[in-house]
């Protein structure tokens, strides 16, 4: 007997599955909408409504909604010098800060795979992210302080400078205004009138040296005869507490040691000497028979190096960018390190077996494999720097705040910081939104491509 197996025909009647009923689909839709409603309300209240209100407000003047000005606020934005400076600075921020932060993050991420204390290294680099922008601004305002005893940056700059260039002995010292023996500009050099060589000493009195400059100084030497054919004399601090005779060496007045004394023939230095502890000097006999002049070199009186004006108009933007990179390099490093962990190690080992050195492995394999991660980090930081406000507002002093101006700061200043024109501020806010949108679009497209893989 042969059994014939036949498929049972599908039922033509009866009800559809419960999940396919229109009522069930409608119920699922309502449940989904109910769960999404709180998020939609928040999105509308915190994003959609402020954007709409800003668009409307940008069409009105400083007086409020009673004074319609149309698009004139936008014309004012692009013709205002402060706003143009802010746009220029924002362009510098967008190009420089994300690029350097991403590059350093890449270098540090690769380093963490090759050092033994990788965890501690990551912690140190990422730690600035735990500090708020306000706190970081206060920290770097102190770091960039002009006084080398307070500002770390200038302390380092002064230390390096003084290592290769010694400071002057008596900064600020100068002759008395009534002294016709020495003349010259305020910071030197100071020169005598033409002199004939004789045994009479050429004494050079100065004032203006500080007590700290005179610590350990000896009593200035009194009158003496010069060796035959030589020029000699004493350089001293012509000041005695409680009185004294001007242009005369009194008891208690100190000799100025270590000063360079030049002998001039015309404008040419033909000899020089250095003053001893009691302020005396002896210049060799000049080869010329004509008159000569004695000069105290300007290097004796130059003010000590005070460091770099980090927060001046020229460097303030770059200094603030440096503080931003200090904060956000850790963020870039962590994301790039996560991407680096996902690269198959077989690719790198195969390249090394084929004879590639470490630089070639890094350039031909590591960087291309990390390209999606590097793109996300770079675009994210670009969006972030377009909105930078706190660091600029805190670090830049009032005198150079305009030189460091950015769009977010200009928006605040126009609306609330003295401008009191929320129409201009709203126009600036929309300009900032328009500048951020392309970067957001690139990020969204990248995320969609990643999800589609």
Automatic annotation (TrEMBL):
Which InterPro entries does this UniProt record tie to the protein? MetI-like, MetI-like_sf, UgpAE/MalFG_permease
Taxonomy, top ranks, is: Bacteria, Bacillati, Actinomycetota, Actinomycetes, Kitasatosporales
Q: What is this protein called?
A: ABC transporter permease
Q: In which family does this protein belong, per the annotation?
A: Belongs to the binding-protein-dependent transport system permease family.
Keyword set for this entry? Answer: Cell membrane, Membrane, Transmembrane, Transmembrane helix, Transport
Question: What subcellular compartments does it reside in?
Answer: Cell membrane
Output the superkingdom of the source species: Bacteria
Specify where the region named Disordered lies, as residue ranges: 1-23
The species is Mangrovactinospora gilvigrisea
Keyword Amino-acid biosynthesis present in the record's keywords: the answer is: no
* A single GO cellular-component term on record: plasma membrane
Q: What GO biological process terms are annotated to this protein in UniProt?
A: transmembrane transport
Xref: Pfam families: BPD_transp_1
> What is the membrane topology here?
Multi-pass membrane protein
* Gene3D superfamilies (UniProt xref): MetI-like
**UniProt key word Transport:** yes
Domain ABC transmembrane type-1 residue range list: 87-443
Q: From the record, give the transmembrane residue ranges.
A: 30-51, 91-111, 123-144, 325-344, 365-386, 423-444
């Amino acid at each position: 007997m042969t059994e014939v197996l036949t498929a049972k025909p599908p039922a033509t009647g009866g009800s559809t599955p419960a999940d396919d009923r229109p009522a069930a689909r409608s119920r699922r839709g309502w449940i989904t909408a109910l769960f999404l409603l709180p998020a939609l309300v928040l999105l509308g209240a915190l994003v959609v409504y402020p954007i709409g209100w800003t668009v409307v407000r940008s069409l009105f003047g400083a007086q409020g909604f009673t004074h319609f000005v149309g698009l004139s606020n936008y014309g004012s934005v692009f013709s205002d010098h402060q706003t143009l400076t802010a746009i220029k600075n924002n362009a510098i921020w967008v190009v420089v800060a994300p690029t350097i932060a991403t590059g350093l993050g890449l270098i540090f991420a690769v380093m963490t795979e090759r050092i033994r204390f990788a965890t501690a290294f990551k912690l140190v680099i990422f730690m600035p992210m735990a500090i708020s922008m306000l706190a970081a601004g206060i920290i770097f305002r102190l770091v960039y302080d002009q006084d080398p005893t307070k500002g770390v940056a200038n302390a380092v700059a002064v230390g390096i400078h003084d290592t290769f260039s010694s400071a002057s002995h008596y900064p600020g010292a100068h002759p008395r205004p009534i002294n016709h023996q020495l003349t010259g500009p305020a910071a030197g050099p100071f020169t005598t009138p033409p002199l004939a060589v004789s045994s009479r000493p050429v004494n050079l009195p100065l004032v203006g040296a500080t007590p700290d400059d005179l610590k350990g100084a000896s009593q200035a030497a009194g009158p003496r005869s010069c060796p035959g054919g030589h020029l000699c004399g004493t350089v001293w601090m012509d000041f005695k507490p409680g009185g004294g005779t001007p242009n005369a060496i009194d008891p208690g007045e100190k000799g100025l040691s270590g000063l360079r004394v030049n002998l001039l023939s015309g404008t040419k230095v033909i000899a020089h000497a250095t003053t001893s502890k009691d302020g005396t000097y002896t210049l060799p006999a000049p080869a010329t028979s004509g008159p000569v002049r004695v000069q105290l070199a300007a290097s004796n009186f130059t003010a000590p190096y005070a460091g770099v004006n980090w927060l001046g108009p020229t460097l303030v933007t770059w200094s603030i960018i440096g503080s931003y990179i200090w904060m956000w390099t850790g963020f870039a490093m962590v994301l790039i390190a996560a991407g680096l962990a996902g690269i198959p190690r077989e690719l790198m080992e195969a390249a090394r077996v084929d004879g590639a050195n470490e630089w070639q492995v890094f350039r031909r394999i590591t960087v291309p494999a990390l390209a999606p991660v590097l793109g996300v980090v770079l675009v994210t930081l670009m969006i972030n720097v377009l909105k930078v406000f706190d660091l600029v507002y805190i670090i830049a002093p009032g005198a150079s705040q305009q030189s460091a101006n950015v769009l977010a700061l200009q928006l605040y200043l126009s609306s609330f910081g003295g401008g009191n024109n929320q129409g201009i501020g709203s126009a600036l806010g929309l300009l900032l939104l328009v500048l951020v949108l392309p970067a957001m679009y690139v990020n969204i497209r990248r995320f969609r491509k990643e999800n589609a893989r």
